[in-house]
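So, read this over?
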Amino acid sequence: MLVSRRMRCVHAAASFPRCFRAIHKTVEKRPLTASQQHGHREYAFHTPAGSRSRTLELMASSTPSLAESIRNIPLLLEDLFLPRDHTTSTSPDYLPYVRYQFIASVAGSTCGVLSMQSLLFAIGLQSGAIPMAAALNWVIKDGLGQFGGVLFASLVNHRFDADPKRWRMVSAFAMDAATLVEILTPLCPAYFLPMAATANVAKNISWLSSSATRAGFHYSFAQKENLADITAKAGSQSIASSIVGTALGIAISPIVGSATANVAAAFGVLSAIHLVSIYKSLSIVALHTLNQQRLHLVIDHYWQGHDRSTTHLANENPILSPSEVSANEAFVLRFQSGYPSRFQRTSVALSSRLDKLRLETLDTFANERYLLQVDDDVASRRGARVVHLLLHADATSVDVLKGHLHLVRLRMLLEDGHLSPAAAMEQSRHDVHRAVQSTHVRTSVADHFINHMLDSDWHCDHLLVEETVARYRIHAADTNARQPE
């Protein structure tokens, strides 16, 4: 038995090399081929026939022709100035935004060359100007400008996050205003220092606003956690546009000359291009954060199918998407988001003090984490009213949504003239968002809206609707306190 087992093992060992050689010959008869995409180039690999190598070899490729190299230039430019896989890693509004921003930056850099020429010309016109005095004036105007920029940033603070579009437009207007002041300095060389310092303050305001708001835009573009890549490419785009704009400014400077009228005329054309391009780029961006204006646009659309004189929802409209809201968002002149919002007949105040509210308001909204009250607007000559909305210190994002849902509903009734000031508060109790325990219908409406908001593309975890944190807390009265005699 033992001999038989040994014979079988020897036979198997002898037959294994033959089997392996047969398989190896089969592989040799079927050479492998493979391809690999490496950046914008594609490589081909194969196993040469008859080769015993266990690795793939690169197939010989011919040197790309001149025509192929020219066709690859757009791909190289994409690598330099656009995020990797930008067609899938960024939102659809990214490329249009970049195009308009590039045009705006070129126009702004060209204006900068013309304004610098005017500044140098003005400082040389000062009576008795010497190099040391000129240098001192230059340093002082830079120092004052930087101090003004720091002060501005401390005053605006978190409003950059709430309304980046508006502050980016402020940045554009400030930059053009500063450039215009610099261009006009040759007309008043004796006032070079105050004019140049004022212009530098405006420039620092522009730079701070632009850099602070850029992060919000980049965050909205990022689709694959590639915020850093988008930010880096934005720097490359800015440098390239600055180089192009500077070259263009140097080219047209001899044509324009040093006459202030000619420089101002050229500035007018370039400023129009700059502002229009900035506006177009911002109108394309669809932000996913909710400030007061965007939230009210969403709620207004939600209530469009509602019969404003009843408390029954006639048509449950879907929630507007960020791109749909962006098409209706106003960020120049009209609707000051982050400030008391003024409509035709009502204004909204979100940071009123408690002493402006009546005690019955506290009783009316005892079961809510917000207070709502309507008063006459004494500053208005058209009989307008002020709607106060105050949030409780423990109010969550859901409570904020409920409060603004109620606020917009009440404002709509006031705008239509269905409520008098005396009846506004009583009516609001039976309107969109009456007390939670009042009726099941009101609760279902609020829940319906909030659930749709949470399921939408909007970022509802942190709402940017409060310019100033003015939340209230009601404390229990001290019954042991000594009463005044």
In short: The two ends are 120 Å apart (CA to CA). The chain has three domains: 27-59, 86-285, 290-464.
